[in-house]
Amino acid sequence: MPKTYQTLAAEKKAQQWDKIPKAWRLPTEISISHDASNVMDILRTCGLLNETEASITSDYDATAILGQLKAGEWSVEQVTVAFCKRAAIAQQLTNCLTEIFFDDAIERAKKLDLEYHASSGGKALPPLFGLPVSLKDSFQVRGYDTSTGLGCFVGEPAGENSALAALLIDLGAVLYCKTNLPQSIMTGDSDNNIFGRTLNPRNKFLTAGGSTGGEGALLALRGSILGVGTDIGGSIRVPAVCNGVYGFRPSVGLVPHGGVRDLNPPGTDGVLSTAGPLSTSLRDCSLFLKSILQADTWKYDSTSVSVPWLDLKPKPKLRIGVALNDGVYTPSPPVRRGLKQAVDLLRDNNDIQIVPVNLPDVKLYYQDYVRYMTLSGSDVSPPDPSSATFRLTEKHYYELFARTSEPVIPSLKATGLLSLPGTTLQGFFDLNARRAEAAKTYLKLFRDNDLDAIVMPPAPHTAVPLDTWSTITYTGLWNYLDYPAIVIPVDRVRDIDSADDLSNAKFGPDDEKLYSLYTGPEQYKGAPVCIQVVGYRHKDEALVNAAAVLDSIINKI
Amino acid sequence: MPKTYQTLAAEKKAQQWDKIPKAWRLPTEISISHDASNVMDILRTCGLLNETEASITSDYDATAILGQLKAGEWSVEQVTVAFCKRAAIAQQLTNCLTEIFFDDAIERAKKLDLEYHASSGGKALPPLFGLPVSLKDSFQVRGYDTSTGLGCFVGEPAGENSALAALLIDLGAVLYCKTNLPQSIMTGDSDNNIFGRTLNPRNKFLTAGGSTGGEGALLALRGSILGVGTDIGGSIRVPAVCNGVYGFRPSVGLVPHGGVRDLNPPGTDGVLSTAGPLSTSLRDCSLFLKSILQADTWKYDSTSVSVPWLDLKPKPKLRIGVALNDGVYTPSPPVRRGLKQAVDLLRDNNDIQIVPVNLPDVKLYYQDYVRYMTLSGSDVSPPDPSSATFRLTEKHYYELFARTSEPVIPSLKATGLLSLPGTTLQGFFDLNARRAEAAKTYLKLFRDNDLDAIVMPPAPHTAVPLDTWSTITYTGLWNYLDYPAIVIPVDRVRDIDSADDLSNAKFGPDDEKLYSLYTGPEQYKGAPVCIQVVGYRHKDEALVNAAAVLDSIINKI
């Protein structure tokens, strides 16, 4: 008889616990059941990190750590141990990890240190030499499960690495853990029946976001300074928003996505998932993109789109479109304030020209986006096993869950994605034809305004209470169009961010309902406020360059 | 009452005739009804071209002509008139043109000449300054029909230029005519009910190929030295083979394809058409690609894939895979001989390493390719107007033909494409999933053998008798995988190319049947023999570089 999900979960959690050395375990009184809603300080106060480890993990971004590693200031082992330890603590505080392979990582680190000495002082080191990189659970790492939090996939270790994992290893990175995500990988709450829910380290009553929520929490606690997620509607950017880190959704195909497990039916087309980084600095998004685009991605992944890194010169002047909202949902008071604050700083800068823009027809396109997400349909009530629609759904959602009798998580139920009708081939072509028109409209917006980027909110709200993140119009638009987009943290919810009158929500009843979610600063304490910077399709390098300029102005870096 | 196709054809042919100045008309005894099977010499002997015009159009490729134009050796008007005149003669010999706009071209040429003088001697001239470029009829040129040879689209002049036409104009090119293609744009014979059939100038009993057959014939007669076609299964490469010119199918999206009329249902996905050049030299394929990739293609076409030109250094050594056949059809004796001759020359060169390769599973992939081509189905016997399948077919083939009561051309009937069942959304996903596996297999072939390119036949035969080109396995494979491929002419059918025993066709009855088409050198007199050079997806620049090296060795350029 197959194991139930409860048994599998218990076994998996026990394995996780075993992978954390005793010396790295928190005293029970400050473990995951702690009372504080914000655990950010515990890393500093728990006493498990020595001074050097605290400094390595606290005071440097990936670019700076690489500099230290390549200069021989720190050994790879030293850096790896520091991040493994910090990730172990983060795990105990937020439940952000899935697979833990600290032992393998430290062993690899030692080998890299030997190579370093053999190379006599840093010559010809690979671009990411010795850099610890964490991966969302859906990436395959040889020898470890890619369960994606589903009972039915537990105990099936990957036979080979995902394309990106293989590439990162070849680039010199040290992989040391994988991170949590939601059941189905399609919600804004990283919660599943095997690993449980990842908590937001800044406020455990707010969501850590999804689907790359484990990375979000891990990065916020600096248990990683470079994590990789995937994004088909906002799955990198939503957790970046919730946890206050940088998150970059590149154009599809630029970063190898081969061998990533998602629960779409094989061969599904339309809107595609893309892999990208979460980081603690904007320049680390650059570092990631540059390292990947300078490599022969095509050798790793037959679906690669070979747009190379061009070492573009920074533009002296930038024209930045500003969209205050998406015409579907009104941003909550802290989001409006954060955007205004950022745009005011940009407007004051002589090198930035602000161009107010409206985003055309987002509501219409979002409807089509949702249709793309549910091409095969998911309406199993009443189930009709003879229909092709049911066959797909059954196979790809309910059937997977049913194998170990696991229930549907609350946030997945809430999305409504499990009760939508599918479409036909003609319906799919109609979606494509409408999207082709949308692409022309947005090309015109960028071209005719001569825009280098658009600045807008990444969502109509900050992190929200658990299981209430219900819409991704602000992020999903760019997946629909396949435009690159970066989330930049600009502030936190402050006492001045009072909830205001519902009449400010001017786009109808759905908008009002969402707007009412913001109840004022108290409940949202610690929630980061972010902006989103969007570039043109395939102009990812130009986007990271422009975003770096904006970030330096807004965050005074 | 709407006009019949006969009326529309008569009107259109009369318009065409009016567009050819009297002084450029051939004496009736050497007009299109001439007896000679090969009309290549008539251009030289007809006396319509003066010495300079003959030299401009005969002795230079596009790169050289550009050099002369930019150096001020020739005026744009002079070059334009020479090519207009030569195209007019080619039209009278082979029926290769559709829309003729010599007047506009000459007017534009005069303007460019003024600009040239204003720019004081050639500084900051656009990359294709003054170069005459011909376009397949399916490209829109403002003010002219894009009938694609269908009665129902006659008399509907385009309101705007196709993306590529607009880009070429911005790059300085002079557009002067559009060229013939088959009804449906889906056969190997450029024949339709409005313009009639384009003849092969080297042998009028053999096909001029399709679907870019008008360009093929025009280029062979040097009524153009740079023409642009489209290729979804071989439509650039087949006419290149038939007419003995260079033909390059780039990866999808690199050359803007927006605003090209094809008869696929809007939103069709799967295997996509791509735009590319036909030319009289390999370096002109390079010139074309470079000029396009250095431009901001994204500004012209929202479907562009922005792979930039990198000015790659030529590789000192090349590893070239050689596939003697595709495992489906056995090449005819002249094709085998031509390939062997070319490969022998390459093998003798110290900078080339030959790697024998087999192309895996082409038969299987070709079946899927055909399914991609008929996703919406075309089985209208018995017609069922209530089904979605019929709706599409009706709209996109038969219904278009029915509007002016035009019959189906013989080569379209012969393809069988009009009587295939369509598929479902699930069937489409299954095709995608199988293709993803195929892409991995072919990535492995390229990567594990460290190949720079594959050399193989472009077809199992040369140009064949009218309406008998029935298969495109050799070219379609690369559309299926979206790999760039170039056709290089290497020889002609010679007296030594005797037909041999059917037992040489070892891949089954279909192979035997096709193999029997070759009856010996007499019937195939003048037919060019070509090779195909295939590169990896998106590595188009590397491919044109490699092909240039191979071309220089094989054709001793």
Automatic annotation (TrEMBL), chains A, B:
What are the transmembrane regions? none
- Tagged with keyword Transferase: no
Q: Which residue positions are annotated as catalytic?
A: 136 (charge relay system), 211 (charge relay system), 235 (acyl-ester intermediate)
Gene Ontology terms for molecular function:
hydrolase activity
Domain Amidase residue range list: 79-543
Record keywords: Hydrolase
Q: Which residues are recorded as binding substrate?
A: 185, 211, 232-235
Pfam hit, one: Amidase
Q: Which family does it belong to?
A: Belongs to the amidase family.
Q: In its UniProt entry, what is this protein called?
A: Putative amidase
Taxonomic classification, please? Answer: Eukaryota, Fungi, Dikarya, Ascomycota, Pezizomycotina
